[in-house]
Amino acid sequence: MLNTGLQPLDYIVFFIYLIGVSAYGYWIYKKKKSKEVSSTDYFLAEGSLTFWAIGASIIASNISAEHFIGMSGSGFAIGLAISSYEWMAAASLIVVAVFILPVYLKNKIYTMPQFLRQRYNPTVATIMAVFWLLLYVFVNLTSILYLGALALEVTAGLDFTYVIIGLGIFAVIITIGGMKVIGYTDVVQVIVLVLGGLATTYLALELVSEHFNRPGIFNALALLKEKGESHFHMILPKENPFYKDLPGLSVIIGAMWINNLAYFGCNQYIIQRSLGANLSTARKGILFAAVLKLLIPIIVVIPGIAAYVLYQNGMFQQEMLDPAGVVKPDHAYPVLLNLLPSGLKGMAFAALTAAIVASLAGKANSISTIFTLDIYKQYINPEASEKQLVKIGRWTIWVAMGIGIIVAPQLRVLDQAYQFIQEYSSFITPGVFAIFIFGMFWKRTTSAAALTAALLTIPLSTAGKFLWPEIPFLDRMGIIFLALSAIIVVITLADPNSKSNPKGLEINEAMFSPGRSFVVGSIFVCGIIAALYTVFW
């Protein structure tokens, strides 16, 4: 059985983190508070976030309990190949910074529904705004709360219900101060997340070196490669049992790009951090996020592989089993966490909490932004003052988090909550990406074509799931994207008025020319990614 309790020193370390983040957030709020807070200042921190705050906030919002628990478990089961989700995301972030972000900033886009309204029409925008709100509140927010509480329950032995309430309240305290507070507290959250994560990785490597009596971190890394050779292949062959999760070359030249570009480029939850900055600062922030993305597998995947090697060589034989005696890969990170010495375990526990709370704060802020600017201001009170909009935004955060706290415990009925939520929430990805990309880069694309793609994406994704279950999910998503793209092209070309479509955005070639420092940084990131895939092909 796992020793899931925290020692007094662990609690001291954790409460130092808790009080420190809260105090820092309050200080930022008081320091940057203006007499008249505008809605764009509250929701976007317009002009206030530095590039490192933008980059850290993107990563803090993206990384949550599912990375620490789920991705470590995948490291145990699959190996280094699961890192494709992070390393290919780093490359995708660069594409977003060069080609997608400039379109938003040039056209003063603050929300994704606003883009759809400006490019197409209010019907497309409203349909997607309502869908995003339902998805963010009832799927994403609740799943972060559920998986986060589950992770803390397993690793620290805390009461599940109290943890959900505590996480929700802590996230609201940070979120209610607006994007300025979220952006700068996320810097602290990322520092805690990285240091705590690296501490667990270091311990895992130390355990490997001690077990095989070959001291030293580099010896431990060599031992992982030697003893777990099957777990060091980035491209999985078809005969691999996990091919359906990571279908071979599709992760580097296939639909993984669609998945990542839609998530990082067409998702309010992520892109919002960049929309209040100037183009140069926003690009540097996204590039900084790409650099941080390269580190995530070191923090979450390597410990999982280390746990696999140790398990294969006689350690954790009972700890890795569920009550039915079946090996549970998701036990890998909690097993390692509970071997940390007192104090260090409190730091790792704080890192896990930081990842969860930052994700909750980011999601709640996006829910508040879309509801306030795209629903309340558009349909309920078009004449609302800036002060009223900020007030509604804050109330929306409380309501959304309250719904999340109530609904999250109901997810216990799901056997594989994370996989279930990820796959089914991604049913909209092909349609969203098609609508946005064609809207940005093909002026003729009509509102009718976009609306058709929006309405068909879920039915086509559902049909593909149940009619061709043998096709890997990423490949199926790519096929559906191509089908929706063809539908958009056919409907647009069939409309003779599309040649004089007035809904085009303001775009010029100069927008897509990043500065020299960004180019050098991008080459560095892409060079590392290429080297990693070459070494571990």
Can you describe what's shown?
The protein is 72% helix and 0% strand. With 537 residues, the protein is mainly α. Helix 7 packs antiparallel against helix 18. The model has no long low-confidence stretch (mean pLDDT 84).
Total beta strand runs? 0
Note the beta-strand portion: under 5%
Q: What's the gyration radius in Å?
A: 23 Å
Q: Which structural class should the secondary elements be placed in?
A: mainly alpha
Tell me, what's the shape?
globular
Uncertain runs are: none
**pLDDT average, as an integer?**
84
Return the string of H and E elements: HHHHHHHHHHHHHHHHHHHHHH
Number of helical stretches of at least 4 residues: 22
Amount of helix: over 70%
The largest sheet, given as strand count, sense and whether it forms a barrel, is: none
CA distance, first residue to last residue: 37 Å
Would you spell out the secondary-structure blueprint of this structure?
Layout: H1 8-32, H2 39-44, H3 51-62, H4 65-77, H5 84-106, H6 112-119, H7 122-156, H8 160-175, H9 179-211, H10 217-227, H11 250-253, H12 256-265, H13 268-271, H14 279-312, H15 332-337, H16 344-380, H17 386-407, H18 417-425, H19 429-441, H20 447-467, H21 473-494, H22 516-535
